[in-house]
Amino acid sequence: MRRNKKIRYLEGDGYWLLKGSRLRLSDGPHGIRKETPQGTLQATCFPTASALACSWDEKLVELVGESLATECIASDVDVLLGPGVNLQRHPACGRNFEYFGEDPLLSGKMAAAYIRGVQSKNVAATLKHFALNSQETDRFLSESVVDERALRELYLMPFEIAVRESNPWAVMTSYNRFEGRNAGENKRLLDILRYEWKYDGCVVSDWGSVENRVLGLEAGMDLEMPGGSSPSAGEIKKAYRRGQLDEELIDRALANIKKLEDRAGGVKRLSRLGHYSVAVDVARECMVLLKNDDDLLPLSSTESVFLAGAIDEAQIQGLGSSKVEPLVTNTPLRQWRDSQYSHCLEQPDHASVCLYFANLPPDAEGYDRLSLELSLEDKVAIDCLKNAGHALVLIVQTGAPIALGDVRADAVLLMNYAGEGAYEALQSIIYGIHSPSGRLCATWTERRTDVASDPYFPSQDLQAQYRESIYVGYRYHTTFGKSVAFPFGYGLTYGEFRYEKIDAELMSGNVFMTVRVTNTGQRKAKEVVQAYVSFPDSSLLRPFCELKAWAKVELEPQESRDVVLKIPRDRLMTYTAQGEKKYESGVYYFLAGSNARDLPLIASAELSDRRGGDRVIDVPDDLTVERLRERHLLFAGLEESKNIPDIYKTMDRPVTQEEFEQLLGRKVPKPITPQGVHAPLHAIRGPLRSLFLKIALKRADAMPGDRDMNRHTVLNMPLRALARLSDGILSPGLLKLIVFLSLRGPYRVKRKRKLEG
Hints:
Elements: H1 3-8, E1 12-13, E2 17-18, E3 25-27, E4 35-36, E5 39-40, E6 42-43, H2 49-53, H3 58-74, E7 79-81, H4 104-119, E8 124-130, E9 143-145, H5 148-155, H6 157-166, E10 170-173, E11 177-178, E12 181-182, H7 187-196, E13 202-204, H8 213-219, H9 232-241, H10 247-264, H11 276-286, E14 288-292, E15 305-309, E16 325-326, H12 332-337, E17 344-345, E18 353-357, H13 376-387, E19 391-396, E20 411-414, H14 422-430, E21 463-465, H15 474-479, E22 497-507, E23 510-519, E24 525-534, E25 546-555, E26 560-567, E27 574-575, E28 581-582, E29 586-593, E30 601-607, E31 615-617, H16 625-632, H17 657-664, H18 689-702, H19 707-715, H20 719-724, H21 732-742, H22 746-756
């Protein structure tokens, strides 16, 4: 193949196709969003990733992946853009609903299950957004600054687990910058992916994220999306002619794209759209009962209830590129009207129980939440209903934690964004046909300010400093004894579970915990048995406990079961400040229970970094989790040579930049003001501003997806990205003219002289 033809094949053919290939790509991840000239095609809308994670059920998530693959085949789609596996660093991130929560192990295992399901039918899954994409504010321009241990143990670990366990056929880079480079052009990040994790698939850019195509090729980014109007081909040819680019890099990228075509182009069986029953079953497993005073739930099927709040709209998914046109549309009001529960009333006169659906603004790609609280209208309405003497069930539909405060609800049920089967699944929970079995994938705090990263979220001056380091979510709250509304892993059922006994056994370097659990209630129910590890004598800065294993089991009333949890040896390893993996010798404590704050059983073992030195040891009778936490806070094993600021041993105030720099071992780079083609569209000034904005907004309105989100995105998009997404309307020459006239040309000079005068 001639060189120029090779270069043309390194970018897409428009938004959803590849040049010289029959492969078609489609947005995901919780449904197929296939765009056609006639509009977006309908498909099954499954629960979003943050809902799936609340199931704590890998087999269930794999089933969702298989169902999505079936719908891809029916829609003639070969590459699905999902799953997203960025951590929920802060509950205000607008795109949290597309991610699997705050814990890297849970996130990685859920993503791996999803990918296995999708690729089992020869459809490619795309793991995204690699990496450190934890906010939507200034996502095209912001630089993420993070210490090495937080990078490795938190933000890269979900990607590593998914890559090693499921080998996604494509990985998508993120918009943000890291260590001075765009993530898709950052050789260090992509070398970790390629060489440390042995990834052999195709690396694709996020749409419009490319800054320097030549640097991207050198770093290991194979495919630029979208294509058709990008100046990248010219940039690559120029670099080759000047001897700045080896043709071997072009061949490497082309080979990885060809590998994607071969894998996703395999034989596929005839398939169909429509998996409503699967969507209902999955939604039911994802709902989390947070509060149930006096066992208000479940309700009797003859109970007189009325619906209030957001009852005539479907809050089943977030907004943005993932928004699905569901095959089945429903609302709470329609579900109750059309169901067997004929005692539903819309007026409260003779009803004893109110189902109140909170009216929360939707989570969305492109911007972060401004508030985590219920609206004033919801609070007033709930108070009025309670003052009238009604029992009230608050139903929350959201993609990430909110701060409920002192809301006067007798029961609280988190639906999450549960997809098109949400309201049928909800009825089965409300009326006790099934017991709720979801558990939180992220901590719910009492206030926004209780989140460790809140003082630094979102980015300031286009720089996101992760000063909280390893203290994300429950790692912060459990270490320093911070009270929360609902802890990580929490969820009620209609059963009652008692943790009775724990035993530890060592085999082949792995730890096996046997936990005896009994359902002491009167109903069949499911429990998620969770295992955490604590190592208080570590020479490194560690949180008090970290999730290492779990199992979801269903027990009949009065049934007991011994649940075996395996903790592989490599899951106990950590990283040094230099990014090297390390296994520390010493006494490890294994804590078992129902959530991160309720861990009644403790086992321990002395483990060695040398084979053959491991042994199980007895736990003192008077040792409790609280005493173990107090011992951890002494940080007795922490080496003084680590030069860790004292603030990371207390976290009793925000971390200063000087303290963060001490942890980093280097100065935080000075924020860079975007110039020229890197400046956002809203930075344009001068007499041509209104014309440029009018053209850009018209283009935004023609883009697929949500109109408001597209407009917001376009206004905050760098000019270089806007040009690559413009289908040739904004040519390189026109872009240079805009920069000259509106950003650094005659208008700016004239304005400067006027100001000086």
